[in-house]
Design a protein that fits this description.
The complex is a heterodimer of chains A (about 70) and B (about 130). Chain A has 5 helices and no strands. Chain A is mainly alpha-helical and about 70 residues long. Classes of the chains: A mainly alpha (about 70), B mainly alpha (about 130). Chains A and B meet through helix 3 of A and helix 3 of B.
């Protein structure tokens, strides 16, 4: 499934390791999600969405990178 | 590209437990030959073998896998499912072949090592899909 996790992470200047730590998963899992080789479970997708202050459907199922709410974009 | 390392979950405790169970299975198999067939001691020894194997699978190995994050668990569960299906098919198929005259295989000896090797190969192959 297409997702914009890589773009959102880059916008925050986080490394894959930083994001993995915030999500409580391995860096390999973040890499697999970003390369669209692995679709996260619903709880992890919700955690990612909450972290970026977006809705799940704004991150997954689209290639468009959106800035988190309140960032003026 | 970062490599997936699904075997990191097996810490020294799980490895020691696996080696301990393997040593017990070998020692008890040797002991059982010294006991009279159908004796109570032999039945108890067989129960001890089955119990040790079940304890190994359901305590240290299961705990090791559940400690992984969701991708790691996903890889292991996929590998376990494929391995179980393949092994059941192989054992059943071999039983048919035995009836046709092929040599008997004692699966109580070979099933666990075959399962372990197939599981490890499965984990490596499936993990490569996510690298």
């Amino acid at each position: 499934m297409k997702n914009s996790v890589r773009g959102l992470r880059a916008a925050k200047n986080w490394s894959q390791g930083d994001l993995a730590e915030k999500l409580g998963v391995s860096r390999q899992t973040v890499n697999a999600i970003e390369t669209e080789k692995y679709d996260p479970s619903l709880p992890l997708a919700l955690k990612i969405a909450r972290l970026f202050s977006l809705r799940v459907e704004e991150i997954f199922g689209s290639t468009e990178v959106r800035a988190p709410k309140g960032r003026g974009q | 590209m970062s490599p997936v390392r699904p075997f990191r979950c097996f810490d020294s405790r799980a490895i020691v437990a696996a080696l301990g169970v393997a040593a017990w299975l070998i020692a008890s198999a040797w002991l059982s030959h010294l006991l009279a067939p159908d004796s109570t001691a032999r039945v108890l020894l067989a129960l001890g073998q089955a119990g040790a194997l079940a304890a190994l699978v359901f305590v240290p190995l299961r705990r090791s896998i559940t400690r992984l994050d969701e991708l790691g668990r996903h890889i292991h569960y996929q590998a376990l499912a494929v391995t179980a299906a393949l092994l059941v098919t192989a054992i059943t198929a071999w039983a048919f072949l035995e009836r046709a005259g092929l040599p008997h295989i004692d699966w109580s000896i070979y099933a666990a090592p075959a399962f372990t090797v197939a599981w490890a190969i499965g984990v490596v192959l499936i993990a490569r899909r996510y690298e």
